[in-house]
Amino acid sequence: MSKLFPRIGSRRALQGAAAGAVALGLLLWWLLPLGEKPPSGTIVFSTGTSKGVYQEYGERLRSELAKDMPGLKVKLLHSAGSQENVQRVATGKADFTIAAADAVQTYEVAHGRGAGQLRGVARLYDDYVHLIVRSDSGIRSVRDLRHKRVATGLPDSGVKLIADRVLRAAGIDPLKDITPAADGIDIGPDQLEQGRIDAFFWSGGLPTRGLVSLARKGAFRFVPIEADLVAKLHAQGEETRYYRATNMPESAYPGVQQGEEVPTIAVSNLLMTRADMDPRLTEWVTRTVIKSRDGIGAHVHSAQLVDLRTAIYTDPIPLQEGARRYYRSVKP
After folding, report:
1. Choosing a second label site near 199 at 20 to 30 A (CA), which of 83, 167, 174, 226?
2. pLDDT value for 247
3. Which stretches in the chain have pLDDT values below 50?
4. Could you tell me whether strands 41-46 and 72-77 are parallel, antiparallel, or unpaired per DSSP bridges?
5. Which residue in 160, 126, 168, 125 sits closest to 306, CA to CA?
6. Rounded to whole angstroms, how far apart are CA atoms 291 and 70?
7. Three-class SS of residue 134?
8. From CA 57, how far away is CA 122, in angstroms rounded?
9. Residue 252: count of CB within 10 angstroms of its CB
């Protein structure tokens, strides 16, 4: 044995190793961040109707938030849709929600209470306007809805907002020229199937769960909303500038569309909160929304379209400070 390296007893070696581990641990404690404690508490998330995409997305997002913030309780609150969601967040009845951009702008133009407090978290995905009739219906265009029984959505929904505007663009007064019904996606399909209405409007992500089962039966078809109506929509006011002409892809409801695209209108959806929401909590929520895209998207197809590059565009409302912090932290 070399005199330069005398034998070390096993006990002494273990003591040395332990001391080294403690020293290394202390060094790492100073050099490497251990991570901040996740936010906790309770928040209220306003969703939508039971068979709509807002509700399904809210349920999935709550599960993802629970993984990242176990101490955060998320209460889901059903709603009629975008218009009610905007009002709830603006007035403090809910903390987070999803709403279509046209509904947000409409609330701001009307100077709704708390409108100045609205802030964006992320642009999510687009809603597509569905105009649905029975397979054997003679309705071929929006203009054919005159004197028909038409479900235009619940009173405080985004569907109601856009359906009335589309009808006016086609020269139809939604109060006088049709028999309106306040049916949403929860009962609209059944009402159509039973012949109690002639058509109904829906605005939602693709595909919408409430239409999938009916689509399998081939019990309905879509009426095209032609691009010429978009210019007439835009002429109705600044709230309508968020509508754009597009096509519903043939893969949305393949059993109904038979490989054909359907001309329609789309509008973007925004995840939103208030300016006074805790920025740290909002930053964590934003992070979860972005990183859980594929997990949620496996069940809610439209969620696959959430994109870091476009999420920051929450016009007509500015980003909340917490969301801005997150996007700055991941900026390449």
Report:
1. 83
2. 97
3. 1-8, 10-11, 13-14, 17-19, 21-34
4. parallel
5. 125
6. 17
7. strand
8. 14
9. 23
